[in-house]
Amino acid sequence: MAHTFARKHSAPFSSRSDVFFGGVFARLSAWNAARRTRNALSQLTAHELEDIGLVRGDIDSIADRQF
User: Looking at the domain assignment, is residue 5 inside a domain?
Assistant: First the structure.
């Protein structure tokens, strides 16, 4: 005689872990976007930054808006 066991998944645990890992992924993505923005703006000359209305001191505040 064969016995079958159905594994029950707990929806509350699953959704909590999905939210947790989704939040971790979102924060990691935002951090990476800020890092890339900061690096790209840092590569520009003072004249290029002035052309887009920024000064070197604005770079961190612009990048941190994403994070």
Answer: no
Residue 49 CB contacts under 8 Å (≥ 6 apart), including other chains = 41, 55, 56, 58
Considering the domain boundaries, does residue 39 fall inside one? yes
Query: What CA–CA distance (Å, rounded) separates 67 from 54?
Result: 19
pTM as predicted: 0.66
Residues of the chain with pLDDT under 70: 1-14, 66-67
Three-class DSSP category at 63: helix
> Helices 59-66 and 11-42: crossing angle, nearest 10°?
160
- Identify the domain containing residue 57 by its residue range: 34-67
